[in-house]
């Protein structure tokens, strides 16, 4: 009986591991039509920006795909997402992706602009960063989490939301699908 149970558990563990491994690699590519239209994305009203010459507005970014990330520099989960954001910025910027980091502070030291500037430099962030100390953008998106990523299509509509770390392959497939859409 003990041998049977050991064999059964081994078989079960192998099946679960194989199922977990294959679901990621066999996942079908996301088609643009498979991404729901969640309505018009709220406009950005931030006045303080880093890494850009002037404030960005979604109305001016029509024809581009926007990845809006809600983050704060002291959040370890936000720091874990940064490598993917940087890779997507480098890979898809020339294809029309605009990444915006909307920095909404959790703690008072994160409100200080010089601390934010130092963090952007330290983490070598090249994409646009908006300071959102009053939470206007955070609230407009009814956001409650760090990090949270919102993908906005070329027409200014919200099409994809991801909360927290992970889901990088699915998110990248959503980016690719939105970039493939005609404008």
Q: Can you walk through the features of this model?
A:
- The chain is of the alpha/beta class.
- The protein has a single domain, classed as 3-Layer(aba) Sandwich (Glutaredoxin).
- It is 38% helix and 17% strand.
- It is globular and about 45 Å long.
- The N and C termini lie far apart (65 Å).
Give a summary of the structure in a few sentences.
Helix 3 links the parallel strand 3 and strand 4. Helices cover 38% and strands 17% of the residues.
Helix content: 25-40%
Q: What is the name of the CATH superfamily?
A: Glutaredoxin
Give the strand tally: 6
Number of separate domains? 1
CATH architecture: 3-Layer(aba) Sandwich
| Strand-pairing-aware structural class | alpha/beta
């Amino acid at each position: 009986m003990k041998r049977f149970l050991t064999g059964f558990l081994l078989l079960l563990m192998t099946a679960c591991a194989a199922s977990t491994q294959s679901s990621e690699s066999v996942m079908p590519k996301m088609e643009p039509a498979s991404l729901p239209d969640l309505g018009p994305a709220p406009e950005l009203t931030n006045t303080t920006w880093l890494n850009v010459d002037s404030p960005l507005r979604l109305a001016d970014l029509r024809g581009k795909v926007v990845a809006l990330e809600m983050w704060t520099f002291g959040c370890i989960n936000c720091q874990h997402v940064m490598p993917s954001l940087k890779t997507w910025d480098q890979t898809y910027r020339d294809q029309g992706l605009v990444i915006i980091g909307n920095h909404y502070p959790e703690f008072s030291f994160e409100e200080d602009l010089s601390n934010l500037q130092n963090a952007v430099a330290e983490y070598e962030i090249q994409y646009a960063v908006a300071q959102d100390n009053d939470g206007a953008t955070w609230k407009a998106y009814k956001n409650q989490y760090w990090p949270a990523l919102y993908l906005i299509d070329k027409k200014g509509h919200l099409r994809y939301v991801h909360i927290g770390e992970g889901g990088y392959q699915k998110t990248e497939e959503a980016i690719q699908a939105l970039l493939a859409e005609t404008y």
